[in-house]
Design brief:
It is a single chain. This protein has about 450 residues and is of the alpha/beta class. The chain has 3 domains: about 160 residues, 3-Layer(aba) Sandwich (Alpha-D-Glucose-1,6-Bisphosphate, Chain A, domain 3); about 190 residues, Alpha-D-Glucose-1,6-Bisphosphate, subunit A, domain 3 (Alpha-D-Glucose-1,6-Bisphosphate, Chain A, domain 3, 3-Layer(aba) Sandwich), CATH 3.40.120; about 80 residues, TATA-Binding Protein (2-Layer Sandwich), CATH 3.30.310. The chain contains 16 helices and 19 strands. Strand 18 and strand 19 form a beta hairpin. Helix 1 crosses helix 4.
Length: about 450
Amino acid sequence: MKLFGTDGIRGHVGSFLTAPLALEVGISAGKILKERVALDLANRANVIAIGQDSRTSGDMLSSAISAGLTAAGWDVWHIGLCPTPAIAYLTANSSEIFGGVMISASHNPPEDNGIKFFGANGVKLCGETQQAIEKLLESRLHADLVNSSTDWGKYHEKSHLIADYQESLQSSIATDLSGLKVVLDLAWGSATRVSLEVFRNLGAEVICLHQEADGDRINVNCGSTHLEPLRAAVKEHEADIGFAFDGDADRVLAVDSNGRVVDGDYILYLWGQELMENNQLPDSAIVTTVMANLGFERAWQKLGGNLVRTDVGDQYVHAEMVRSGAMLGGEQSGHVLCRHYAVSGDGLLAALHLAALAKQKAPLSELMDQSFHPYPQLLKNVRVEDRELRRNWQTCDVLVQAIALAEQDLGDRGRILVRASGTEPLMRVMVEAETLDLAQHWTDSLTGLIEKQFVKI
């Protein structure tokens, strides 16, 4: 039974993710966490904090997993609507909270949802623990746990704790943002909680888009995956900067006053420069993924910096940061983690620090002019419904040989990355090359081959 992907359990509600499954996941996770952390419980309360984004299925899944956790003997504190990094923050910084759960499918459409677990340090559960949960689920022994137990947990509403997270955001920068006009696209999701207040409390003039929690419209033609509304609003209001969040606000993309997109590569480059100048970047290292643009890598190396790449997924970035002692890392998609201020990727935190740079140093448009020129990079998705075909695509000799031929042709003029999405039923093809024509040629060639080999007609 393979439930966990690159970012927790995620899928279509009803056909894959159901209330009974969430209940069983809660029981199994509760059992495994009790076994693995028994010694630590002497120093922490027996509490799991649960948050959710605005999806209409969130209440159902939150209730089901809460029932499972309380059946396994954990007390549940329900935080309610909040960003994913709020759960990570509360778990890491409260002596009363042992672990966390976030009900969210991040940037996915409204009909999807997901379950993310956090350990006592505010970090997502390691692969070994996830596998243990899956194994217990598959064995069906979790049912015996409930039938034989009399040590039930309790359920409490604790929505007021979001104020602690909000205060941590505001105190992370010392810059007054007054005079800065900012547009925020809140994507009808988690960012509708606290983000407007944080920017206004720090003095910014704020214009909001999609600012109400609406589970039927979360991420639909808005947010970090659809930037056109933000770009149009920045130009219309003559704003200095715009930020677009995803459904659970753990990622952010920005737009400068000229409408240029500022993705995670640029955020890491600009924030990295600031930290390097202040001697806060050990070994001048930034940890990112194989998706990071070659233009970013070569520009950062020209500054004397060190760029370390990992597999796609913020858990891999975080693991490498911990292993190497790096303090800044993230993904091109907008997950950015700075360990000076947080234990997880945080879109609101990254947005605040980028806004502070724009206020302190120069307008974001000028900072962009002084940064780097990216290589043309194309990313195309092919929908492949068969999960086993996606996961085992490397066994297709025809595709593997085609990729090798493309890599031989590109040489040091570009890169190719083919992978199965860990969160959606997609095969992703990324081609980066010195020229757009070259990138387009190999993108079309490889996606066409995938469609022929994997897509059932």
